[in-house]
Design a protein that fits this description.
Elements lengths: L6 H18 L1 E13 L19 E16 L17 E6 L1 H8 L3 E6 L2 E5 L4 E5 L2 E10 L2
Antiparallel strand pairs: 1-2, 1-4, 2-3, 3-7, 4-5, 5-7, 6-7
């Protein structure tokens, strides 16, 4: 099948898209649901018979990871939405690479930190392929 762009032109445009991402990316932190860790499952103490109660044997290990994303704050941040399809206050769109998308999609995301503010993921990913360069788009909403 014929192409409107030569292979060299396609690779040049792909490189430009990657450079665009590298130029405008920001650091985001994705916080996942913590892992519950049980440290001592043998409770031999007979509580109420003079033995001291054991310290809590359950701890939670925080899971978070930093990624880079292009962040777009929607232009109508103060508009109150009453109709389906309108942009609500605090709506943000992030464009990430595959590694970040995979991390966001697996498990439960508790929050995503951007510029010191927290957001909840409200959509699944939307895949956008530009001449072989693939990005994943998620929509977030500010927590209040």
């Amino acid at each position: 099948m014929a192409s409107l762009l030569a292979n060299t032109t396609t690779s040049e445009f792909s490189k430009i898209l990657e450079d665009h991402f590298d130029t405008f990316k920001r650091k985001i932190v994705v916080h996942k649901e913590p892992i519950k860790s049980v440290t001592n499952i043998q409770n031999n103490a007979l509580h109420g018979y003079g033995d001291a109660a054991e310290a809590s044997n359950v701890s939670y290990i925080a899971q978070n990871k930093e990624f880079y994303a292009i962040v777009n704050y929607e232009s109508r941040q103060t508009e109150a939405a009453t109709q389906v399809g309108t942009v609500e206050s605090g709506m943000v769109r992030i464009k990430v690479e595959k590694e970040a998308s995979d991390y966001i999609k697996e498990g439960k995301v508790e929050k995503i930190e951007i510029d010191g503010k927290t957001f909840n993921k409200i959509t699944d990913d939307k895949v956008q392929n530009y001449l072989g360069v693939t990005f994943y788009i998620f929509y977030l909403q500010a927590t209040t």
